[in-house]
Amino acid sequence: MSSAARKPIELPDDLQAFAEERVRAGKSPSVADVVRDAVEEKKLAVLREALDEGIAELDAGLGVETTPDELMAEISAELGLDS
Question: What tens digit of pLDDT does each residue of 29-57 get?
């Protein structure tokens, strides 16, 4: 994304202070990097949770056998791509 397309965000005072402190401590080059890193960490946490749930379902015998073609057809249908 180009810098012209980026929109500035306002952080609550406590989060702004936290981000600025991380920059002052040399743990991040900028406040934007602190925010970006936090978003990436959250994405990874959500993915890990979904993976753990999926593994638990498989372990409980709740998996569904399918072929790659069937799976792709189902995904296409859910996305409305099967016209």
Answer: 999 999 999 999 999 999 999 999 999 99
Separation between Cα atoms, residue 44 and residue 52, nearest integer Å: 12
For the chain, the straight-line distance linking the first and the last C-alpha, in angstroms and rounded, comes to 32
Predicted structure pTM score: 0.64
Contact 31, 23 (CB under 8 A): yes
Helix axes 13-24, 31-59, angle to 10 degrees: 100
pLDDT digits (tens, 9 = 90+) for 51-74: 999 999 999 999 888 999 999 999
